[in-house]
Specification:
Number of domains: 2
Radius of gyration: 18 Å
Number of strands: 7
Largest sheet: 7 strands, mixed
CATH superfamily of the largest domain: Metal-dependent hydrolases
CATH architecture of the largest domain: Alpha-Beta Barrel
Low-confidence stretches: none
Oligomer: single chain
Shape: globular
Strand content: 5-15%
C-alpha cells in the first residue's frame, strides 16, 4: 500500500519530512510521495530519511495552476528535484509568495489584527510562510479559535485579507514536470466544481501537453466520483493515482495512507508511474 499525496512543514503540513517517513513506516506503507505546494525544499530530507527505512520515497510536488475562478492543482512525480528549469520556475513562485505575504500582513494590520513577521515565523520552517501560518498566528494571538473561521472571514479567496498568488498556466506546470523527467497528474478533480464534460475537456487539453495521470482516489471523493474519474483515465490512457492529501495536525481525522479509513492505493500505481516516466 502506498500514498502519493502528502504535505510537510515545507508547505502547509505540520509534520517534518522525517516524521512523515516514520508515520509511513508505522502504518505499513511501502512507498510515499512528498507533494508540497510549489516547492521541493523538503525533498532532500525526505529522501534521506527514507533511505534508513523500507519505505520507498517518491519525489513529488503540487503546483497551483492558473485556471480562472476555479482551483486547479497539478501533481508531479518521479522528477529530478535539481532540474535547473524547474528550480528557476519555483524561484519565481517563491518570490511572488514573499510579495503576497507582505500584502496579506498589511491588510490584516489595517483590519486591526496585530501581527508581525515574528509571529508568523514561529509557525513556519525556514521562513516558508503561507496562509496556514497566518491562520496559526491569528489563533495564537487569540483573534480566532478555528482555522476554518479565519479562511471564511479573512484569508479565503475574495475575502478581506486575500491576495492572489503567482501561478503558471496548467500546460506550463505539466511541461516543467515532464522536462524534469517526471509524470504530471491532475490533483483531486472532485474539488474542482467542474461538470463531467468540463473535466473531460480539461483532460483532453492537458493530455496534449503531456499529462500522464489523474488522481482518482482521494479522501474527499465519493465512490461514484472515483468510478467516473477511472473511466476518464481509461478513455484518455492516463494512470489512475491516489493519496491521502495528509496535512498532519491540520487534518486530525485523516491518516497517512488510509485517508478517513477506506483509502487503499496499490503498489502497482507506482509501477505504472515509473514505466511512464521511463518511457
Amino acid at each position: 500500500m502506498i500514498d502519493l499525496h502528502c504535505h510537510s512543514v515545507f508547505s502547509d503540513g505540520t509534520n517534518t519530512p522525517e516524521e512523515l517517513i516514520a508515520l509511513a513506516e508505522q502504518g505499513g506503507l511501502t512507498a510515499l510521495a512528498l507533494t508540497d505546494h510549489d516547492t521541493t525544499d523538503g525533498l532532500f530530507r525526505f529522501m534521506a530519511a527514507g533511505e534508513k527505512t523500507a519505505v520507498q520515497t517518491v519525489s513529488g510536488i503540487e503546483f497551483s495552476a492558473e485556471f480562472g475562478e476555479n482551483t486547479l492543482h497539478i501533481l508531479g512525480y518521479l522528477f529530478d528535484p535539481a532540474h535547473a528549469e524547474l528550480q528557476s520556475a519555483l524561484e519565481w513562485v517563491r518570490d511572488g509568495r514573499s510579495e503576497r505575504n507582505a500584502r496579506i500582513l498589511e491588510k490584516l494590520n489595517r483590519l486591526g489584527y496585530d501581527l508581525t513577521y515574528e509571529d508568523l515565523r514561529r509557525h513556519s520552517v525556514d521562513d516558508l510562510i503561507g496562509r496556514p501560518h497566518f491562520a496559526a498566528a491569528l489563533i495564537e494571538k487569540g483573534h480566532f479559535k478555528s482555522k476554518d473561521k479565519i479562511f471564511q472571514q479573512l484569508l479565503g479567496k475574495g475575502k478581506a485579507a486575500y491576495v492572489e498568488r503567482r501561478r503558471f498556466e496548467p500546460e506550463v506546470c505539466v511541461e516543467l514536470i515532464r522536462k524534469a523527467g517526471g509524470v504530471a497528474a491532475i490533483a483531486h478533480p472532485g474539488q474542482m466544481k467542474l461538470a463531467a464534460r468540463g473535466l473531460r475537456r480539461l483532460v483532453k487539453r492537458l493530455k496534449e501537453a503531456g499529462l500522464g495521470g489523474l488522481e482518482v482516489w482521494h479522501p474527499t471523493h465519493q465512490p461514484h466520483q472515483s468510478a467516473s474519474f477511472l473511466r476518464i483515465c481509461e478513455d484518455f490512457e492516463l494512470i489512475a493515482t491516489g493519496g491521502s492529501d495528509f496535512h498532519g495536525g491540520l487534518t486530525p481525522d485523516l491518516s497517512l495512507g488510509r485517508g478517513f479509513g477506506e483509502l487503499k492505493i496499490s503498489d502497482t500505481v507506482l509501477d505504472l508511474l515509473r514505466q511512464r516516466a521511463a518511457g
